[in-house]
């Protein structure tokens, strides 16, 4: 009845644990849902992608900076090109002014000497002026310069017209008319040179403005370059610091949890990180390992308590059986002494009956002695019968106790097999933990410098798994020894049970024979009484009495042999109970050692 109540309590405990764990699981899911709402997409990115995103962002900034710098350089290049073109225009204007002066000089020289060479010089200078004017016409870009250019162009046209119509045809004209033409020509050439001087000043002003623009473009390019480099550097440093702080913070929490688990504290809360990156997967694996270790240690603790209780019960039963066998052995010794006395008395009675047959004539005188002897024999036989009945009851008790011990040892053997299965489960969990530590070490090696701390944690987890594996090997050896001891005890108990059963049957046979002896002695008493009443009847029945006495002697000897066998069986049962007691003590010690190992963990 007590065992049934214990089994019901054991069946209730897992349900209670399931309710508590389910309540914790619901609270945990609510907490995870709240955290998942606040979780940013950064948590779902791997650490490599986080740093990669930072590099990509910095590269984008550098690309934008390069674009801005390229634009600034193009603007500076454009300003330099404009400066070069304006410098060329200033040179062309200066050369144009010189050609105009050359035309005026050639015209004046021709008007004085009327030499064809001077005429050709004028025409060559005029052609050069026209080419320069054509080039400058496409390079001017404001109204002032275009107006000055138009004045120069008109004056040049008038100079050529004046040279062709007035000076070239005035060879026969008076000197004063020639002087008028020369003065008009020189004045117009001077006016044209003045216009060209204005045009050159305007072009030089534009060149100065272009120089200022080029200098400003260079300063802008330098400013953009330095600003872009500074901004890219600052943003890159800030991004790397934020990412490193994010990774280091959550890695520290994972390392803290793993250190507490390694120290045996399984009550530590799980890591509150719901990302899908390497840290999230590591936190999830650490939480699963903690839950599996908690369940495993809880089951080991329950099994240890059960083994401890069963070993105590077995030890108590073995003590009871041992005490019973000792009492049976003492009773058998007393019974053996009584049966030996009875056998001796039967032998003496046989001699007496033989003498009675030989001395049939003296029976009458010794009848009183014979009557007294038969009364004593009847009393001894009655006592022997009572001892035999008590021996039968004791053998029945021994039979029940040995049968109960065999049943308990068989149950112990089944429980030890369950422990072997549990040890196999623990070994599988230890192997999986070792494989998880190896995978974690590989991931830490891939992470490089940022994974060194995690590699240390993975190494500690691997060492813990190896320690658990070594403990599993020790537990397996202990359980195997317990199974061997329980098997040996079970075999010894079964052998003792068979011997006790055989002894019980022998004692029953001895009791039957004692009843026959008692009946025969009663018959002998009746015969003695009949002898006392009539010697003739006693003489005729002396042979029958002699046969009965011989049968009593043989039965007594058989009873003595059966009692000796029963005593030997009781001694064997006692030694077997000693072995059972020793095995139960060893089992209890092993259960205590297992309980000490389990107490190293906090659940």
Automatic annotation (TrEMBL):
<dbReference type="Pfam" id="PF00672">
    <property type="entry name" value="HAMP"/>
</dbReference>
<dbReference type="Pfam" id="PF00015">
    <property type="entry name" value="MCPsignal"/>
</dbReference>
<keyword id="KW-0812">Transmembrane</keyword>
<keyword id="KW-1133">Transmembrane helix</keyword>
<feature type="domain" description="Methyl-accepting transducer">
    <location>
        <begin position="317"/>
        <end position="567"/>
    </location>
</feature>
<dbReference type="InterPro" id="IPR003660">
    <property type="entry name" value="HAMP_dom"/>
</dbReference>
<feature type="domain" description="HAMP">
    <location>
        <begin position="245"/>
        <end position="298"/>
    </location>
</feature>
<keyword id="KW-0472">Membrane</keyword>
<feature type="region of interest" description="Disordered">
    <location>
        <begin position="542"/>
        <end position="586"/>
    </location>
</feature>
<feature type="compositionally biased region" description="Polar residues">
    <location>
        <begin position="542"/>
        <end position="553"/>
    </location>
</feature>
<keyword id="KW-1003">Cell membrane</keyword>
<keyword id="KW-0807">Transducer</keyword>
<dbReference type="GO" id="GO:0007165">
    <property type="term" value="P:signal transduction"/>
</dbReference>
<feature type="compositionally biased region" description="Low complexity">
    <location>
        <begin position="556"/>
        <end position="581"/>
    </location>
</feature>
<dbReference type="GO" id="GO:0005886">
    <property type="term" value="C:plasma membrane"/>
</dbReference>
<feature type="transmembrane region" description="Helical">
    <location>
        <begin position="224"/>
        <end position="243"/>
    </location>
</feature>
<protein>
    <submittedName>
        <fullName>Methyl-accepting chemotaxis protein</fullName>
    </submittedName>
</protein>
<dbReference type="InterPro" id="IPR004089">
    <property type="entry name" value="MCPsignal_dom"/>
</dbReference>
<comment type="similarity">
    <text>Belongs to the methyl-accepting chemotaxis (MCP) protein family.</text>
</comment>
């Amino acid at each position: 009845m007590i065992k049934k109540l214990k089994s019901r309590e054991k069946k209730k405990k897992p349900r209670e644990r399931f309710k508590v764990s389910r309540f914790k699981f619901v609270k945990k899911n609510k907490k995870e849902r709240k955290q998942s709402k606040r979780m940013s997409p950064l948590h779902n990115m791997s650490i490599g992608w986080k740093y990669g995103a930072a590099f990509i962002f910095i590269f984008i900034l550098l690309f934008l900076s390069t674009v801005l710098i390229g634009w600034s350089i193009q603007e500076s290049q454009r300003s330099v090109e404009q400066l070069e073109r304006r410098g060329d225009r200033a040179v062309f204007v200066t050369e144009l002014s010189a050609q105009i002066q050359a035309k005026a000089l050639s015209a004046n020289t021709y008007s004085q000497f009327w030499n064809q060479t001077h005429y050709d010089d004028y025409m060559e200078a005029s052609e050069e002026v026209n080419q320069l004017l054509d080039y400058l016409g496409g390079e001017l870009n404001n109204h002032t310069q275009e107006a000055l250019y138009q004045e120069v162009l008109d004056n040049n046209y008038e100079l050529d017209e004046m040279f062709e119509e007035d000076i070239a045809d005035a060879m026969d004209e008076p000197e004063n008319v020639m002087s008028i033409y020369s003065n008009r020509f020189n004045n117009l050439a001077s006016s044209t040179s003045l216009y060209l001087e204005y045009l050159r000043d305007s072009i030089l002003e534009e060149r100065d403005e272009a120089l200022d623009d080029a200098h400003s473009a260079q300063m802008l390019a330098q400013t953009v370059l330095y600003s872009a480099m500074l901004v890219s550097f600052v943003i890159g440093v800030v991004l790397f610091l934020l990412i490193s702080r994010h990774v280091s913070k959550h890695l520290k929490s994972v390392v803290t949890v793993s250190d507490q688990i390694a120290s045996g504290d399984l009550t530590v809360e799980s890591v509150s990180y719901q990302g899908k990156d390497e840290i999230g997967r590591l936190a999830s694996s650490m939480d699963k390992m903690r839950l599996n270790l908690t369940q495993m240690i809880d089951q080991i603790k329950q099994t240890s308590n059960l083994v401890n209780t069963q070993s105590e019960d077995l030890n108590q039963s073995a003590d009871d059986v041992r005490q019973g066998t000792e009492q049976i052995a003492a009773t058998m010794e007393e019974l053996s002494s009584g049966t030996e006395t009875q056998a001796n008395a039967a032998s003496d009675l046989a001699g007496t009956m033989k003498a009675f047959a030989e001395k049939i004539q003296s029976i009458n005188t010794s009848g009183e002695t014979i009557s007294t002897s038969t009364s004593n024999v009847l009393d001894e036989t009655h006592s022997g019968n009572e001892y035999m009945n008590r021996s039968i009851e004791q053998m029945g008790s021994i039979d029940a106790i040995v049968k109960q011990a065999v049943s308990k040892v068989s149950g112990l053997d089944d429980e030890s097999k369950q422990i072997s299965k549990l040890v196999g489960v623990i070994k599988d969990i230890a192997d999986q933990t070792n494989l998880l530590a190896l995978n974690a070490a590989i991931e830490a090696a891939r992470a490089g410098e940022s994974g060194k701390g995690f590699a240390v944690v993975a190494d500690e987890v691997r060492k813990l798994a190896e320690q658990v594996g070594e403990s599993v090997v020790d537990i397996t050896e202990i359980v195997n020894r317990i199974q061997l001891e329980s098997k040996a005890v079970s075999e010894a108990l079964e052998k003792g049970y068979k011997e006790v059963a055989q002894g019980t049957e022998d004692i029953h046979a001895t009791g039957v024979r004692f009843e026959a002896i008692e009946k025969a002695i009663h018959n002998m008493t009746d015969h003695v009484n009949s002898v006392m009443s009539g010697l003739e009847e006693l003489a005729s029945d002396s042979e029958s009495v002699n046969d009965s006495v011989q049968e009593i002697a043989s039965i007594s000897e058989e009873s003595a042999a059966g009692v000796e066998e029963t005593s030997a069986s009781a001694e064997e049962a006692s030694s077997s109970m000693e072995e059972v007691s020793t095995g139960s003590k060893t089992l209890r010690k092993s259960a205590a050692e297992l309980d000490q190992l389990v107490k190293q963990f906090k659940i």
